[in-house]
Structures are given as C-alpha cells and as structure tokens.
Amino acid sequence: MRLSRYFLPVLKETPSEAQIVSHRLMLRAGMIKQAAAGIYSWLPLGFKVLRKLENIVHEEQTRAGHIAIQMPILQSADLWRESGRYDDYGQEMLRMQDRHGRDMLYTPTAEELVTDIFRGHVSSYKDLPLTLYQIQWKFRDEIRPRFGVMRGREFYMKDGYNFDLTKEDALHAYNRHLVSYLRTYERMGLQAIPMRADSGPIGGDNTHEFLVLADTGESEVFYDSDVVNLSLANVGNGLDSLNYDSHEDMQAIANFFTSTYARTDETHDPKIFESQVPEERRRVARGIEVGQIFYFGTKYSEAMGATVQGPDGKPVPVHMGSHGIGVSRLIGAIIEASHDDKGIIWPEGVTPFHCGIVNLKQGDEEADAACDKLYSALTALGLEPLYDDRKERAGGKFATMDLIGLPWRITVGPRGLKNGVVELTCRRTGESEELSPEAAVTKIAEIYEGIA
Ligand code: ATP
Ligand code: MG
C-alpha cells in the first residue's frame, strides 16, 4: 500500500477522552472512530488488525477440530425464555420489538441459539463430539463503556460451544480449548494466563479466564508466580506437538492451571492463597480478561431438550461448555502490552503491514526507483509493505511509522543508495543496520517465514 493513496487519519493531538494508552494510541493511529458510547467504526488500519486476529482465531479453532458457523446478531426472545435467561440477563441485554410487536434482542452470547441448532439436527451419540463456533459482533449494554475497544458495548467475539455425550468428553473439550487458546494468544505475541474464576450468569463451576497482566487491567488477580513460568514453559515446549484428540495430552497441560493458584478477584480466597502458596511466590496484580472457557454440564440441554440417543438407545441430555475470546478487546490488550512513548509496537503475528518503506527524498529519481523496486520485491513474496511516498519531511514520516508501530522499517535515501545500501530498523529495539536492498528483502522474508 502506498500511503499517499491510503486512508490513515492519524491525529497529532492526544485525544482528551482517552484514559489509557491503548485507547489513546488507537485513536491517534487512526484505527477506530467512536460512533456512539462504546460503539466504534473500524478504520482501515484497525480493521486490518481485527482481520489478522480473526484469522489466527479461525486457524487455531480449525486446528483443534472446531467447526465455524455464523449465527444472527438479532435473536428472538422466545429461545431465551426457554432457558430462563430472558429475565435473568438483566439490563446488559439490549431488547427491542419488531413491527409485529415480537420481542427481539441483540445477541450478548449465543448458548440458546446454538442449542436450538443442535437439537434440530443432531439426534445420535454417533454425531458427537461436536464443537461449533462463530466470530460475531455482540452487544452488551455496559453501564460504563470505557477504555475504547476494551470495554465496548458492541464488541467482536469468538464464541464456541461443545456438545459431548459424557462429562469426561466435555472436560476433554474444555482442556482442548484451554490449550488452543494458549496457542492463539501466543501467536498474537501475548502471554495470557489461565486463571480460575466465577462463572457468573453462564452457570456451572468449571471455568478459567485468560488474563493478560497489565496495570490498566480491570480485574484484580491473585496468583502463584510459578504459574507464569509454567505458562511460558508450556508454550515454549511447543504446544505444536500435542495431539488435540488425546485426553492425556490435553489433561497434562490443563493440570498446570488447575493445580496452581491463579484466580480472579471474584473467587479469590485469601485464606487458601496464604496457606498454599509460599509468601515469596504470592503475586497480586491487575489483568485484562481476553477470554474465558466454561463447562456447564447439562444446564442448557436439559432446559431446552437437547438430547441424543445414547449407545443403549435411551435419550440423554448432552454435556456442554462454551468458550469466548474477546477479539476486539485483544487489540487493546496487545497495545497495552506492547508500546513505547512513540507509539504502538505490533508483534509480527498481528501487524497490519509487514514493514514500512520510508523514502527520505520523494521525487529523487534514484530514491523513488529503489523504493518501487523494494515494494515490488516484497509484494512478490506475499508480504505487505506500507510505502510512505508522501512529500513530507523525514521527521514526520518517522513519527507516523513509529506511531502506527510496524515492526520493521526500511529507510531509503540518496546518500545510502550511493553506497548501495538502505537502512533496516527494528521498531522494538530501535536498532538499525545498513544492508543492500536485496539483503533487506531477504531478511524481512526470513523474519516472517512461518508467520505471515
Ligand atoms: P467482563 O468480565 O470483562 O465484563 P465477561 O466475563 O462478561 O467480561 P465473557 O462472557 O466471558 O465476558 O465474554 C468472552 C470475552 O469477551 C471476554 O473474555 C472478553 O475478552 C470479551 N468481552 C466481554 N465483554 C466485553 C466488552 N464489553 N467489550 C469488549 N470485550 C468484551
Ligand atoms: Mg468472562
């Protein structure tokens, strides 16, 4: 993409309404624009990152054997009356009526709808296990939307639902989700720690939230410092080699996070924390919830008659769980975890463009030609550069690149070209090296091998 033809409305001023750094940077980098309280339009740069995250989620869900569907945003209230949640859900549910006076709602989650799909089409235990998921907009009429996309009213969420014959199978599905979520966050350059939590209105006792530690997080969390090391070690040891169908493989990873003390404030018990966890390993911190998994047994299947014929021919209610990833919130979480005073620093796995090209002397024949050549060479390799081809001073171009946070920048100017070199700069470390344009392309291609 050539910046002169792109739509990147960066802001010079720091927006006063934004209280935390990710919100400020998303507004300044022209990623989002508020449409109403807690509701945002996604501008090109933000939308690109959202799509990248969405792709990673799809890929990891597919790898775990889960099947993508798409359910509607507007739902009839009837199903929610069947489960009893129409009255229970409270004011976070946005309710409305259609022209015939039928009660409708904007989906805050979709257990009812997916259970209705299941009961309409699945009747035998032979069709299990089954996990269906979607990535879809949700609406919760949060009393205090804030922090930009972190606590919106409309937000983008992956929600998945497993249907299993037995509790044991459903717990395997739970563990499989735990592992697939660890992989998902790791590919986004994030460390999200599974911590035990309260299940809230979804119901059931088995639940983990995934927390990214950050001072601006809304949850207070309590954990044994070993859990962070274990979480890192697991990802480092290659979740890649695990077999998602193996109950043992999944259980082995999940065990770390059930046996180690890590809880969000809702279920924190100071007595247990103090008698279990040695003092030097006790940590109290703040975290951003980027996902949650639940096992809730037969709560919905019994209420809504979602049964299958078991091996003995008798109908049995299926065991279920649900699992969510806050896709739009993750963008805020990634920025909270990865920025400096100049702007965002995208992890390679989610960056909107793979690298920037800065032409120090736009209009100079040689510099323009060298940039064009770099641009085509990178594009031919399937990479997406953002070429700043505007007639602007170098300082302004660097500031824009730093703000929008592309992990690599190639700087091209007449002086370097005389010696046959361009400059390659790493956004994270600030380190630069001079190398031939061809070598720069090769290096960038190597960096993204296996990522892009
Ligand atoms: P929270 O405790 O932050 O209100 P939740 O526990 O109610 O979230 P879940 O039902 O677990 O949310 O939804 C799954 C994921 O969706 C959450 O882990 C979170 O990442 C994301 N999410 C929930 N509410 C919002 C929101 N208002 N804005 C953005 N993302 C959200
Ligand atoms: Mg939650």
From TrEMBL:
Residues 33-347 form the Aminoacyl-transfer RNA synthetases class-II family profile domain. GO terms for molecular function: ATP binding; proline-tRNA ligase activity. InterPro entries: aa-tRNA-synt_IIb, aa-tRNA-synth_II, aa-tRNA-synth_II/BPL/LPL, Anticodon-bd, Anticodon-bd_dom_sf, Pro-tRNA-ligase_IIa, Pro-tRNA-synth_IIa_bac-type, Pro-tRNA_synthetase. One of its GO terms (cellular component) is cytosol. Its main location: cytoplasm. It catalyses: tRNA(Pro) + L-proline + ATP = L-prolyl-tRNA(Pro) + AMP + diphosphate. Keywords: Aminoacyl-tRNA synthetase, ATP-binding, Cytoplasm, Ligase, Nucleotide-binding, Protein biosynthesis. GO terms for biological process: prolyl-tRNA aminoacylation. Its EC number is 6.1.1.15. The keyword Nuclease does not apply. It is found in: Cytoplasm. The keyword Aminoacyl-tRNA synthetase applies. Catalyzes the attachment of proline to tRNA(Pro) in a two-step reaction: proline is first activated by ATP to form Pro-AMP and then transferred to the acceptor end of tRNA(Pro). Belongs to the class-II aminoacyl-tRNA synthetase family. ProS type 2 subfamily. Homodimer. HAMAP family: Pro_tRNA_synth_type2. This is Proline--tRNA ligase. It comes from Ruegeria conchae. The gene is proS.
